[in-house]
Amino acid sequence: MTTTKKTKTSPSSIAQSPDQSAKVQNPERTAPVFVPPANFITREEGLVIYEDMVLGRSFENKCAEMYYRGKMFGFVHLYNGQEAVSSGVIRAMRRDEDYVCSTYRDHVHALSAGVTAREVMAELFGKSTGCSKGRGGSMHLFSAEHRLLGGYAFVAEGIPVATGTAFQSKYRREALGDENFDQVTACFFGDGAANNGQFFECLNMAALWKLPVIYVIENNKWAIGMSHERATSVPEIYTKGAAFGLVGVEVDGMDVLAVRDAAQKAVARARAGEGPTIIEALTYRFRGHSLADPDEMRAKEEKDFWFSRDPIRKLADYMTAQGLATKEELQAIDQRIDELIMDAVEFAESSPEPDPSELYDYIFAD
Ligand SMILES: Cc1ncc(C[n+]2csc(CCOP(=O)(O)OP(=O)(O)O)c2C)c(N)n1
Ligand SMILES: [Mg+2]
After folding, report:
1. N or C: which end of the chain has fewer CB within 10 A?
2. Residue 128 sits in which domain range?
3. What residues have a C-beta under 5 A from ligand 2, the ion?
4. What is the CATH number of the domain that holds 119?
5. Measuring CA to CA, how many Å separate 338 from each of 61, 140, 154, 245?
6. What is the per-residue pLDDT for 268?
7. In this structure, is residue 295 part of a structural domain?
8. In total, how many domains does the chain have?
9. pLDDT value at position 9?
């Protein structure tokens, strides 16, 4: 990665203010600054990434609206603010070939992996046309077609699943001699999940067997209302693989080009048989933990600072400054995505509920 200097991810006054305990609990990290080399992305690549991020943002905004209108039930965790991580990693992988493993905050990972907005929205509405046939809901999106290994309600639950998936790719390729199995698995999870024991067991196995897996930690500074700094003895998660001899990098998770650069290198390492990588993306969720969270724990100054680092605006500014796209072209994409999401809502609304006679279907693999 081209790193020239480190920059504070927020003003130091936030971290030092003595009268605001939430702020003191969660001091800011310095993120590496990524300076893209000339021609780092083509116009086409930039437009794909931009569209992917806008799709994620607009989809989640519509989810909030539909949730409050009573169209979906249970917990719904939105991804606003973190789009650069999903788009930067997943759009650097082979669609429908490489694997993606998510968490309960899974809508945008599913969209980046190629699951249609229609299928994701219908799943959130509990309809039979949803990607999990209406059985899963928000936290349990799944698609064999798009190699989405699932959303998982339990924190860290996806880590062993992703590690096992990477193992099967490696086993089929090396033990069974099938060269077609060179897939890479990206495993997304949060800063809170990185304190779970499964993470460390899997790091050991992944490093020992040089598995083609990327552990992408979305460090958004908070695990519900628990600040990362209060919950962990070593806040720099990317360093935790060192005990296992595993490569770890930190990236500015609000800069999709920085994430993409780290992801491309990690994918190349994994595909070349050089083993796993930890990518710790320093990011922020723009909404509460879930739509049931009034979001009263985080300081206004902290939120305002991160809002000012919006990853979509950052890419838009880069593309226009580099002459890769005009403002009008980007606005046309925004408009197209709005229409696509309206179509997804109409599809979800008009789709049938699962038929009670099919209650026992899809419980076991056929
Ligand atoms: C094993 C387990 N313990 C506790 C919970 C309750 N819980 C749900 S989300 C969450 C916070 C996880 O935070 P993090 O991993 O940082 O992800 P984020 O929500 O910030 O994306 C907790 C503790 C759970 N779902 N599973
Ligand atoms: Mg978190």
Report:
1. C
2. 47-322+334-352
3. 190-191, 220, 223
4. 3.40.50.970
5. 11, 25, 32, 45
6. 98
7. yes
8. 1
9. 52
